[in-house]
Specification:
The structure is a homodimer of 338-residue chains. Helices cover 46% and strands 17% of the residues of chain A. With 338 residues, chain A is α/β, with parallel strands linked by helices. Chain A has 16 helices and 9 strands. In chain A, strands 5-4-3-6-7-9-8 form a 7-stranded mixed sheet, with helices on both faces. A two-stranded antiparallel sheet of chain A has the order 1-2. In chain A, strand 4 (193-199), helix 13 and strand 5 (220-224) form a beta-alpha-beta unit. Chains A and B meet through helix 1, helix 2, helix 5, helix 6 and helix 8 of A and helix 1, helix 2, helix 5, helix 6 and helix 8 of B.
């Protein structure tokens, strides 16, 4: 039997080098709301261009690229949305996620990757650390507004895993609440919960808007200020730490968990949402790529493995920890008690 | 029989949105020469970091990402190059292509994609057009130096398709020669060829270096200046137009081909190298994505289908045209005679 070695090609190199062009094409399509215009029935480049206020030539080239990329289909000169595109990128869909480009592809986030070589040399970012820690920065306001839709499925999965009697009166703290979606989703499932959202004041305006929108405003309280400095007060039954620990190094995380310990009621639990790579640190892809985002965006952040997270909690007074998959979302939930 | 619809997920949206991060990680790895350091035998993050003059933490996170992306393998804490990575991204390999990031991911090329929304609205780029048409710009010098390695396989395939008696004395013109690789490869196959490289003077210094390197300097002549203004002189047997026409709109291309007609000898032929999408304009992927690059980088450039190119040549005095695949490279060769 003859064995044929697979052809060694530079294809992966080429595809990866030009991958930024695909991000840019997607952002442009969302900026010009091309997907919604097609969803509304405009199908030729001329029709879409007219509806979007753009040039036919530009829209023709962009739409062909979006077809190659798998967002559109093309029949003759007519473009149509794929099923996934109709669900997530047509603004008229309740599952619309397109706003996420406003954060993920913001100049600030891209800046971190412009300076990635420096971050690798230095072992951490020297550019965006300040912005991400500045209470007056608009960055987290943009995050809160843009990323909320992406958080729903994860927040709902978290709410299903709180594991308390649904009628119980609970006092709930949502750390770095941002859009507030995590606290709000848990609050909706626990109608007698009082929800406390902690974040910088600017960002909390978004959380309050969402509390209003989801009908929990009468039970929603805010604690403005730096999470490391704020007085959260005592007696919380549940404390949520969604997508927060990854911004910091291990000593900072442990110090923060000890602070939360002081605010947690007898028998209370901490629910942490994180990207958790496997112990090999190179799988599964979404979680294993996340440390790079933190390298580009923070001085010392990372995505921690479960054994690292477990040790952080154990070192900070939480002997019992379990990890729960939030399938189909890439993140995990860690449930910690004393 | 029950039919199960495929799960509709936002995976493609997410992957495309963050694709720019992969381009950045690859560029950083090449900037820091991580692949060569690994090829030389450094395998742990600590060893690679020391060899590359970078922080271990930065290298660990970068190398894990490169493993997820398929450039490295990881066993325990040791990283190794994939076969393709060793062939194309280790500087010690004769097939090293890494320098291409210096052009494809240059600030100027990325700038075009930063302003892609404006280019779609306007029907063409308003930012980089000037730079690409400025004889004093360093952009094409960078192109000539960075992209030459990527051109070899295509240039060799072109040389194989010239179709003349190898001992014949031929006069050969290479339009927008740049790195000069196309003319030089044809010249090497035709030892009695006199090669004329036309480009801006700054760029021709790179072509002359390469002519020296490949032993054809004694037969290499240069014609400096703007291709639309230069006097190429008469009597060429073969004129190469490699990767040039896509920068311009159809009337400009036709005008230019008529100019070449005046310089072509009786029985001479024009060999054009281009990205040629199929008539549907959405396949095959590399050629079908190329118009987007031209939209971002030029006021009126495009990748033309074969029927469009054929019509351009017919309108400019070339009745006989054929198209040749340059497999495994994505480009095509168009051979035109009167």
């Amino acid at each position: 039997m003859t064995q044929h070695a697979p052809e060694v090609t530079p294809d992966l190199f080429w595809e990866t080098m030009v991958a930024f062009q695909r991000s840019a094409a997607l952002k442009t399509a969302i900026d010009l709301d091309i997907f919604t215009k097609i969803g509304e029935g405009n199908s030729t480049a001329a029709e879409i261009a007219k509806a979007a206020g753009a040039a036919e030539r530009g829209v023709r080239i962009l739409s062909d690229s979006l077809t190659v990329m798998g967002f559109l289909t093309k029949t003759g000169n007519s473009y149509a949305l794929t099923e996934a595109c109709a669900a997530f990128l047509d603004k008229r869909s309740q599952m619309y996620l397109g706003s996420a480009v406003n954060f993920i592809l913001s100049p600030q986030q891209k800046r971190g990757f412009e300076d990635l070589t420096d971050a690798v040399k230095n072992g951490g970012s020297r550019v965006t650390g300040e912005a991400s820690m500045d209470p007056e920065s608009e960055m987290w306001v943009e995050f809160a507004r843009s990323m909320a839709p992406l958080m729903f499925p994860t927040a709902q999965a978290v709410a299903e895993n709180v594991g308390l009697d649904p009628d119980r009166e609970i006092k709930l703290l949502d750390i770095a609440a941002g859009h507030g979606i995590y606290g709000i989703m848990v609050g909706k499932r626990y109608p007698n919960a009082q929800i406390y959202g902690a974040d910088w004041n600017k960002v909390l305006t978004v959380a309050k808007e969402n509390a209003e929108k989801f009908g929990v405003a009468d039970r929603y309280h805010t604690i403005g200020g730096d999470a490391f400095e704020s007085d959260f007060g005592p007696g919380y039954d549940v404390i949520l730490i969604p997508n927060f620990l990854h911004h910091f190094d291990v000593p900072t995380c442990e110090k923060f968990i000890r602070k939360l310990d002081a605010s947690l009621a007898e028998g209370g639990k901490i629910l942490t949402v994180e990207f958790v790579p496997n112990e090999d640190r190179v799988s599964p892809p979404p979680s294993a790529m996340f440390p790079l985002v933190m390298l580009a965006a923070t001085p010392g952040g990372d995505a921690y493995t479960y054994s690292e997270l477990k040790k952080m909690f154990e070192n900070s007074g939480f002997a019992n920890n379990e990890i729960v998959e939030l399938h189909p979302m890439p993140q995990h939930l860690i449930i910690s008690t004393r």
